[in-house]
Amino acid sequence: MSHFKNATSEFKKRLADQPVIRRAVVTPLLAQDDGPIYTGSNANPNNNGLQVFKSSKKRKAEVYSQPQETGAGNHINSLLLNAINFLKTSDEPQSVEDLKRKGNIDLETKPRLYELLKSNEKVAYDEVNNTFVYKPTYQIKSKEDLLAMLEKRKNEGGMDYKELKDSYSKLPQAVQELASEGRILVVKNKDGQPRVLFWNDQRYNTAMDPEFREIWHRLRIPDEIDLPKELEKAGLTHMQVFDKKGPGEVPKRKQVRRNRKMKITNTHMKGLDLTKDFVIQK
């Protein structure tokens, strides 16, 4: 029993002589150095029992950069597209110097780009003046040209706004002015952008009675779900869509099954009458 007490007291004495190391919370530093290094030996009471050693190794700061905005890539197709887009915004012919000064497109140092631009189907090249101009789908240079084209195509319906966008660089301004003057009619998308343009024939701009206008605007179109019911109440039927066969479609013919003649291969039995020659006699 005395031996056990001695062992216990000796163990407690050794445990009390052990140094106490406190846990430290290290916060990563964003500075260029690696931060302090902590150790449990030679503890400093001002640092929670830990000694701090400064590291002489410097940490390089990480730098993240974005690609520089250069306008166009270095590939020949990217340069060609950039040159054509620049010509779209210019209604007048552009020389080699104009392309370099205004569009940052150097054709003198890029002969391959020069030849591709000359032979492009959307670019008209003037060999006499050495100028380039964009070749639009429709020749429109002013809002009067736009009005004349819409009047010329009045019997063909309206013109798609997207098809006219590359024909005139000031098309949005021209459409807005002509619409405000009542010379054209514009059908817009849900976002308010022009969709279809029509020439407005002034002969059909009949003055309407204010009372009739009030009655007209007072009427409300039913919702799409309730529209068939409202039409039925008024004795009307809604439009039905029928599938139409295209001009190149040929109706399929039903295949008729035909009985094929079987070729007899048992030629050695030819001339035998099974009903007579092989009848069991009673």
TrEMBL record:
Keywords on record:
DNA-binding, Nucleus, Transcription, Transcription regulation
Q: Which InterPro entries match?
A: TFA2_E-tether, TFA2_Winged_2, TFIIE-bsu, TFIIE_bsu_DNA-bd
Does the keyword Transcription regulation belong to this entry? yes
Which GO biological process entries does UniProt record here? transcription initiation at RNA polymerase II promoter
User: GO CC annotations?
Assistant: transcription factor TFIIE complex
- Annotated GO MF terms: DNA binding; RNA polymerase II general transcription initiation factor activity; TFIIH-class transcription factor complex binding
Compartments reported by the entry: Nucleus
Pfam families this protein is in? TFA2_E-tether (PF22254), TFA2_Winged_2 (PF18121), TFIIE_beta (PF02186)
Which residues belong to any copy of the TFIIE beta domain? 68-141
Q: How does it assemble?
A: Tetramer of two alpha and two beta chains.
**What is this protein's name?**
Transcription initiation factor IIE subunit beta
